[in-house]
Amino acid sequence: MVSLALAALAFLGIHLGVSGTTLRDRAVAAVGLRGYMLAFSVASVGAIVWLVLAYQSAPYVPTWGQLEGWKPVMIVLMLPAFLLVVIGLTTPNPTAVAQEGLVNRAPQGIVRITRHPFLMGVALWSGLHLIGNGDVASLLFFAALAITALVGTVSIDAKRRRALGAEAWDRFASRTSVVPFAAILAGRNSLDVRGMGWWRPVAGVAAYALMLGGHAHLVGVSPWPA
Question: Residue ranges of the alpha helices (H) in 90-165?
Fold first, then answer.
């Protein structure tokens, strides 16, 4: 459990203590953007591998215990989590790596729902599993992922504002939101289903179906209520 706690702290430190902060800006100035990206990628991959391996080997120490009644909720809400992740990863977005130049383009597709679709999907996925698993290891593992995703939205916004300038970033931010559907409900934009294309939602549903069907074999836990 000590290894898992240290891995969680390392993962949080790399993503919240470096990426998106002025420390990142100083590192880029010192070693260049390519050098920083290479070092950050290696450190990030190392941290997530350590986190996963430590989680897999951690003992099961119950907190509130596994919640069988929570599984139907997870089955339903994991679909939007997958859609956010898959559509978000495949949609051009100025908050994504190396796509800052899109900031002056009108938000399209999933970006109108949230400007951080991938991170919102990860946060939803992590939160659902944290509640459902009910043990100390899951608390450490999924909390680290959820906190990184949620705080990461603030970190990325600050980084983009510094890099792109307040005027350009604020114009984009005013037409979008971090919280899904908040900008739409506030009348700052409208839903753009066509902008998502047909294949992105299909890919998201397919990934969800594959994980739902293979969860017991891949993870060792059935997603279906007993």
Answer: 117-133, 136-164
Examine the domain organization and report whether 53 and 70 are in the same domain: no
Residues 204/78, Cβ–Cβ less than 8 Å:
no
| Amino acid at residue number 144 | A
Is 225 contained in some domain? no
- Considering only CA atoms, which of 220, 222, 224, 223 is closest in space to residue 55? 220
Statement to judge: residues 167 and 109 lie in one domain: yes
52: domain range?
A: 1-58
Q: Cα(224)–Cα(203) distance, rounded to whole angstroms? A: 22
Q: How many structural domains is the chain composed of?
A: 2
Contact 191, 109 (CB under 8 A): no
Residue 48 near residue 149 (C-beta atoms within 8 A): no
For the chain, the straight-line distance linking the first and the last C-alpha, in angstroms and rounded, comes to 28
Q: DSSP label at 194? A: G
Tens-digit pLDDT profile for residues 72-126: 999 999 999 999 999 999 999 999 988 999 999 999 999 999 999 999 999 999 9
Same domain? 48 vs 76: no
> Could you tell me the two tokens for 91?
């949609």
Whether the full predicted model's pTM is greater than 0.90, yes or no, is yes
